[in-house]
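Extended Data, panel c. Modelled sequence:
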Amino acid sequence: MKIIISILITVILGAVIWVMMCNKSENRMMDVYKKNVKTLEKFWNHYENEDLEELEKMMAGNYESYFYPINEPKGIKSSKYEELERMKRFFDIADNISLDHIIMLPGIDSANLRLDGSVRMYSGWSFDVNEEKVSLSTYGFYDFVENKILLSHEWYDRSGVGLEIRKAFEINQIPSE
């Protein structure tokens, strides 16, 4: 009987220790997630202010971005400097860039379904082109390394944004006489 009780106590203690370790790991990953949210909020603040130098500092050297337009189910990959160049071209034509609403949620490791520190973001943006307001919704998720963004995956209607920008230029063109 003593052996059975000893085994039972050992199993219970082992289970308690295992649960405590899992909770500690989850809490640690939640802290990492919260730190990464602050990094991402700072990044988007620099984006709204069109500060390319600060944006570059917040991107890891080996940063990669993926965008998922129609007929590209595996996405189109861009490097850090390709993304910075794209941002520069956008900043040259857009004014009043604004992150109008945002929902950030923790990401999970798809293999074990545990928090992994990544951030998922649903957001609404607006900006002006030639005094015409353009608004859009986006979804993205982001991975981090050493307080910098390492990887981004983003979904939004890029071609629709391009059409709205072209329309804004056409609407406000002065007819030639």
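The chain is about 45% helix and 35% strand. This feature is highlighted in the accompanying rendering.
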